[in-house]
Amino acid sequence: MRCYSVWIFLGDSRMSDIVISTTDNSRLSLLLNWYANPYHTPIFMAHYLGFYEDEGLSPAIMETTDPSDVTDLIGQNKVDIALKAMIHTYAARAKGYKVVSTGTLFHEPPTGLIFLKSSGIKGFEDIRGKRIGYIGRFGKIIIDDLARRAGIELDAYETVRVGMNMTDAILQNQVDAGMGIGCFQQVELEQASGQETGILRVDELAGLGCCCFCSILFLVNEEYLAHNEDKVRRFMKATQRGVQWTLENPEKAYDLLCQNIPRLRTETFRKIYISCLPYFSRDLVNVERDWDKVGTYAQELGITDESMDAMSCYSNEYLPERPYADFQPLDGHYLSESRAAS
Questions:
Q1: Average pLDDT over residues 234-261
Q2: Secondary structure (3-state) at 163
Q3: What is the pTM of this model?
Q4: Which domain covers residue 147, as residue numbers?
Q5: Selected catalytic residue, list 88, 107, 227, 333
Q6: Distance between CA atoms of 32 and 220, rounded to whole angstroms?
Q7: Which burial class, exposed, middle or buried, applies to 315 when counting CB atoms under 10 A from its CB (0-12, 13-18, 19+)?
Q8: Whose C-alpha in 18, 139, 220, 260 is 20 to 30 A from the C-alpha of 12?
Q9: 88 a catalytic residue
Q10: pLDDT tens column, 120-140
């Protein structure tokens, strides 16, 4: 039997074992894809500023201790909403989990092989003789696929699973480089080491043209969605308002985040926060082009086959028809709505 470990954030920022009411209709569980960090800021803003409460919701926001658990928990309908990357959504569907993305939180963060320049790595061919760290199963799949594309034998390098400790693994000389996000792990590594770092982006090495495979999405189980469509709509509406407020008040947002999660009040996390700001999706839309590209990439990686329908993996139906605004249009109509009606 596999055990899953998560923590829940309470109103005063403390954490305790998860206890979620099954009778209070305002409650829902939201499982983060990582420990709480700056790229989750819009969610916490929606929580701290009462945007979820305005929609009649009281979310229990949880962080995982193992990102691989998130797919199984949402796939088994053990949590209501979860964050996970696009490539993992395809993998979950291929595994038989009926999960659907209802929106995008973090769009196309640069993702790739992160390293200290002192390691001697300049191009992907330099992984020969090196130890390459990865977070979970799909990190290794991607590394091995890139090696295949580069004509590098699988025994010419070593892969090491380091989980959520990529930066420390590099600093402790457990690995020479590792898969990570440029606006997170690369910034963290540079700050912790005091050295110059580099990144070999997967989208460039694999010819994807975008880092959409690592876009972070809101996933729900189809069974939960069938009985909670209105609740999901209200959640997405409040979250979009959180993104909007974060982008329009970046300094206030970071300060409020740190007030409630004090461990994030460091120079490293401040720089990570600034680096993450450009990648927040203001409209939360699932981009069709991205799903098509990642669908093809998932097939190339052997995660899915041609029977996988990209349209079954996501829906924009639960996103707000109108963005949040303090004032409504004076004539009562949005331009897009007027065009659609004509």
A1: 98
A2: coil
A3: 0.90
A4: 111-210
A5: 88
A6: 13
A7: middle
A8: 220
A9: yes
A10: 999 999 999 999 999 998 999
